[in-house]
Amino acid sequence: MVNNSLIEKAIEEEMQDFKKMLSINKYVPLSFNNWQRGKSGSYSRKGICIDLGTVTEWYEQPYRTKYVLAHELVHAKFNEIRKPWLNIIVLPAMTLEYLMSELRANTIAFELLGQDADILVDYFNNFYVVKFNNPFNVNNGYLSGKTNVYLIKQNPSWNEKAIEDAIDFFTKKFLLLKICVTKNQKEKIKRDFKTLLIETKLD
Ligand SMILES: [Zn+2]
């Protein structure tokens, strides 16, 4: 039985570096879910929690673990905590917002990891859990791995063009969004994401 505490320490150190890169000054608690073998992580009021399956991945492919960590930190940066009841019924405009938040977290995580296309493809094809999207709607705004790779390759940096392209793509590809999200809602979401661009300057 290998002791995971060294890895947990390494993840904590990595988190401090990412926090600096993202200019996150607030305290973000980090915990590990040692009974959940899942390959993911989460961000909630309690902070970032990393699944056991993500922790142990550090032995073989540490950048997969780092991808999850960086993704959750972007949620922390923007205080993106989902309201639990909205995971049951998500209105179309909110689905679009969720899609944008997830894509932003994935794109900025890609930037933090040095924009390496091999890492991108490996992470989303071999590790990331969402494999398919229903063309009618997107459950809870979680995009399939394949679509993440497609969109992030087109816009490897999170900027105005990435926002415009993503909104266009989502409201064309997913029927429910195409039909139900109004032009005003689209423009508002676009504006809101653009307003927060200044905060994502990586240096
Ligand atoms: Zn997320």
**Distinct ligand kinds:** zinc ion
In the sheet with the most strands, the strands line up as 1-3-2
How many helices in DSSP terms?
Answer: 9
Order of helices and strands, N to C? HEEEHHHHHHHH
How can the largest sheet be summarized?
3 strands, mixed
Mean pLDDT: 91
Count of spatially separate domains: 2
Describe the fold and architecture:
The chain is mostly helical. The protein has two domains: 5-77, 2-Layer Sandwich (Zincin-like), CATH 3.30.2010; 85-200, no CATH class. 56% of the residues lie in helices and 6% in strands. It has a three-stranded mixed β-sheet with strand order 1-3-2. The model has no long low-confidence stretch (mean pLDDT 91). The site of zinc ion has 4 residues, from helix 3 and helix 4.
Task: Please give the structural blueprint.
Elements: H1 5-21, E1 30-33, E2 41-44, E3 47-51, H2 52-56, H3 62-77, H4 92-112, H5 117-127, H6 145-154, H7 160-173, H8 175-180, H9 183-195
Parallel strand pairs: 1-3
Antiparallel strand pairs: 2-3
The structure holds zinc ion.
